[in-house]
Amino acid sequence: MSTEQIPVFRRGYRLQWEETQNCHVILYPEGMAKLNGPAAEILQLVDGKRSIAGIIDELNQRYPDAGGVDNDVVAFFPRVVQQKWILLREPE
After folding, report:
1. Which residue in 60, 38, 59, 49 sits closest to 8, CA to CA?
2. Which of these, 1, 36, 66, 80, could form a disulfide with 86 (CB 3.0-4.6 Å)?
3. What sign has the CA pseudo-torsion 57, 2, 76, 21?
4. What pLDDT, in 10s, does the model give residues 4-42?
5. What is the enclosing helix (H) or strand (E) of 29?
6. What mean pLDDT comes out for the span 34-60?
């Protein structure tokens, strides 16, 4: 995985706020997965245009007192790729 890759939701998968769960969820054909706050923050920035590095930059700007989110975001994407929620595309 490279931080220059661009994450995109797989076809049939989407992020949305679920009022009854009081959290963001990933909806997919087989069901739903509840997300914690940090996962939702990261996935809200997945727009099919922004690279992983761009997501890291945005989160570091939003949360300057966090001391850097780089390692957490880099560790997050292999897990969601393994879950088959996200695909990683090479930049054009």
Report:
1. 49
2. 80
3. positive
4. 999 999 999 999 999 998 999 999 998 999 999 999 999
5. none
6. 96
